[in-house]
Specification:
The chain is mainly α. It has one domain. It is 56% helix and 0% strand. The protein is elongated and about 65 Å long. The chain starts with 13 loop residues before the first helix and ends in a 15-residue tail after the last helix.
Length: 177
C-alpha cells in the first residue's frame, strides 16, 4: 500500500484536506517530494507549445500543408492522451487492488491526490490547451477539439504514478433479507 495515507488523529481542515498535506499545511510523510513527476508536467507544456505552433498557423494560413500538419498533430496528441488515460486507468486499478481508494476525481482531476502546485500546473496546462482549441477549432475542421484529452491523460498519469490516495475503507458485509 505504498503511497496511502495512514489514519490521522484528527481530520485536517478543509483547506488542507485537498492538497495531500496534513493539518497546519505540513507535508504529509507519504506525499511525494517537491519536483516529483516534473517530467510529466514539462511534457504538458512542451505539447502545448507543439500544439500552438502547428494548430494556429494551420487554422489561419491559406495553406493545405499547414492545415494538414495542424490536423495531424491534433490527432497525434489525441492518441497520446487516450493512451495515457488508459495507462492511468490501468495503474489506478492496480493501486486500488493494492488497497488505495482511487476514484476518477482523485485520479484524473487530482482532487486530494496531488499537492496544490501540481494541481495548479495541470489546470494551467489544460486551460492553455483549451484556449488554443477554441482559437483553432473551426480552422482545423474541428480536429483540435480532441487535444484537451492530453492534459487529462497527463494528470491521470501523474496521479497514478505519484499521487497519494487514502486507504480503501474495509468492506462491510451485506445483510440478507
Amino acid at each position: 500500500m505504498a503511497g496511502t495515507l495512514p489514519p490521522m488523529a484528527e481530520a485536517p481542515d478543509a483547506a488542507d484536506s485537498s492538497d495531500a498535506t496534513g493539518s497546519a499545511g505540513a507535508q504529509h510523510p507519504l506525499a511525494p517530494p517537491p519536483g516529483t513527476g516534473r517530467a510529466i508536467i514539462v511534457w504538458g507544456w512542451v505539447t502545448n507549445v507543439l500544439f500552438a505552433v502547428t494548430a494556429i498557423p494551420g487554422a489561419f494560413l491559406d495553406s493545405d500543408v499547414a492545415k494538414g500538419l495542424g490536423i495531424a498533430v491534433s490527432l497525434l496528441l489525441f492518441v497520446a492522451g487516450t493512451i495515457l488515460c488508459l495507462y492511468a486507468f490501468g495503474k489506478g486499478l492496480v493501486r486500488s487492488s493494492d488497497g488505495d481508494d482511487v476514484a476518477v476525481s482523485n485520479l484524473f482531476f487530482l482532487s486530494g491526490s496531488a499537492p496544490k502546485p501540481v494541481r495548479r500546473q495541470f489546470l494551467w496546462i489544460f486551460l492553455v490547451s483549451f484556449t488554443i482549441t477554441c482559437i483553432t477549432a473551426s480552422g482545423l475542421d474541428g480536429f483540435s477539439v480532441l487535444v484537451p484529452m492530453l492534459p487529462v491523460g497527463l494528470a491521470g498519469t501523474w496521479a497514478a504514478r505519484h499521487g497519494v490516495f487514502p486507504p480503501r475503507p474495509p468492506a462491510t458485509p451485506r445483510r440478507r433479507r
